Amino acid sequence: MPAHIRVPRRRVSAWLAAAAALPFFPGRLGATAETYPNRLIRIIVPWPAGAITDLTARLIANQWATDFNEAVIVENKPGASGTIGHATVAHAPADGYTVLFATNSTYAIAPNTLASIPYDNEKAFAPVGLVLRSPQMLCVNPDVPVKTVPALLDYVQKHPNEVNFASAGVGSTSHMAMELFMSLAHIRMQHVPYRGGTPALQAIVAGEPIVGFVDLSTAVSSADSGMLRMLGASTTERTALRPNVPAIAETLPGFQSTTDVALFAPAGTPGPVIHRLNTAMKDAFKLPQVTKPLLEAGLILVAGSPEEFPQYFAEECGKWRKLIETQNIKLQ
After folding, report:
1. At a CB cut-off of 8 Å and minimum separation 6, what does 162 contact?
2. How far apart are CA 331 and CA 309, in angstroms?
């Protein structure tokens, strides 16, 4: 791990210890694993219906209902940069019947941009696993006379203090992606935050802010209809859905940003229940009725384990914390 990354040690240490212990829980927890689940499961999505997290949760919920032979419902609890939904799960019983489909904008970024959150972010959750990643596309209004990332950099440098960029809100992954882009390119644009990815996309299409990062799944239709121009992909390699669009890293080495979705349960949820949820998530990703719409949306399926999550979390949280500090991003 790079020396400059500062890791939230209490949380990562706790997760590492829990992950190491998961396969070796004493036999007294066996009954929990054998009888779980035996009633309705709530999946909390801290974003509005129609978002990537919501789509993923509903596809998996449908399969879980069959797998578990129990009702599984999705509840959308948006607001406050995702922390309202997170708080719902943080304060729920640690029994596996209330789980969270979260994004890195909340679990890795929000603690560094919000003045306060209504739960202990270092102790409230137990990771079930990283679910998927959503590539972001650097997009411009088609009236802007640029067609490549180098051309955009040149345009911004020739129009100092004139170029505005849109984001889904302060601390969103689209905001952080642009901050990382500007940091690596040594340029500056003015931030115009919106209340979500859809309003930000609409603003770019209207030519208000002329540029911004948009999740690939929501950018495709606008790009195909000529209302938006894609300049670069946020992943280290080109995306399978748009292989003709270069990766930004081809121009700015080291650039990488995605909207990540992870599955959590309340802290203290028994290890066998965590593993049952993880297995069910992985099993769902073996089925075309679940994977086909996700892959068609350009998403990168991960289906990671609880044991793998702490290292990922440490790197993700450290990366964005350092950027927030160096770019002097103000607290809300």
Report:
1. none
2. 27
**pTM for the model:** 0.85
Residue 317 has pLDDT above 80, yes or no: yes
Q: Going from the N-terminus, what domains does the chain have, and what CATH number goes with each?
A: 9-133+259-326 (3.40.190.150), 135-250 (3.40.190.10)
The CA distance from 221 to 48, in Å, is: 20
Per-residue pLDDT reduced to its tens digit, 99-122: 999 999 999 999 998 989 999 988
Instruction: Measure the CA–CA gap between 172 and 193, rounded to whole angstroms.
Output: 9
196 vs 172: CA distance, rounded Å: 9
Helix ranges (DSSP H) in the chain: 9-21, 30-35, 52-68, 83-90, 104, 110-113, 149-158, 173-185, 197-206, 216-224, 271-284, 288-296, 309-326
> How many Å apart are CA 69 and CA 49, to the nearest integer?
25
Percentage of residues of the chain with pLDDT beyond 90: 79
> Bridge-partner residues for 17, per DSSP?
none
For residue 37, say if its preceding peptide bond is cis, omega within 30 degrees of 0: yes
What separation in angstroms does the CA of 241 have from each of 136, 214, 297?
12, 14, 8
User: In this structure, what token pair is assigned to residue 262?
Assistant: 């992870």
pLDDT tens for each residue of 157-174: 999 989 999 999 888 999
* Residue written as token pair 């992606």: 177
Angle, helix 309-326 to helix 9-21, in steps of 10 degrees? 170
